[in-house]
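Subgroup meeting minutes
Present: P.N., E.W., G.H.
Scribe: E.W.

1. P.N. recapped why we're keeping a running log of single-chain structure predictions: easier to compare across weeks, and new members can see raw inputs and outputs side by side.
2. G.H. added today's entry (278 aa).
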Amino acid sequence: MRHTEKRAEGAGPFTTRLTWRLADGGEAVWESRAARKRGALTVRAAEGAEAVPRSAESEALGRLRTLNSVVAATFTVGGALFALGAAIALGGGGATASASVYFVGGLFFNAGGYSSMLQAINAPRPGSAARALETRRWRWWRYEPMQIDWLSTFVLFAGTLVFGLNLLDSFLHGLSADQANRLVWAPDMVGCLLFLISGHLALEEVCHGRPGVRPHELGWWIVAVNQVGSVLFMIAALADFTVPSTGGLVSASIADWGTLTGALCFSAGGVLQAFERP
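Output recorded in log:
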């Protein structure tokens, strides 16, 4: 159908929504998150008419459903295991026991981060026709820093890998304060910072610019809940700093409670993602 591009919206150099004016007076709207998560764009046939989602090819939808299920399950389980590790620490269950549970949870976060990036890499893109989505050939890796969904998920995946380094180092015992801060606390801080950056980019994507409040959109709730979890993780990391003069943490209680509540946020976000599917 004949059409002209009406407008592009987004954050900075990133385009998160494209709107075309159709010859029949309606509109076709592509949004990066809706295409990536649901494999769809929206068509409004005429002013006042009901919006109708148009889906990508069935093969692409099948891949997106599988990836979405993996992302939802891994973050749900990973968050639950992090919460369990923090509960063990709060209950005095021992550093090795909690570190072991954290490490397994970190593997689930790794899988969830990479699967999220695969969603962005293989997301349907706007086609030459306004009512169509183009399915790209499956890739395990692409470099697309000018796509906000790719950048957000790449930073998230990098954060999970840094957390993995932090979790491995947490098994080391007998460290001095300087060694603990360099090997355990510093990677923890970097991982938290990467999670916060990823969450901010995700908020910009779902809000098509400056982050705001969109309580009627499931995607916004998922991103917002995860960002709250990232903030709580950062609070926990700050409390986990080893004070050189005393050799103790700033606050072990705050560190454990911050990890527990932050992990529950990510687990809740994983559950919500199970409903944001094609």
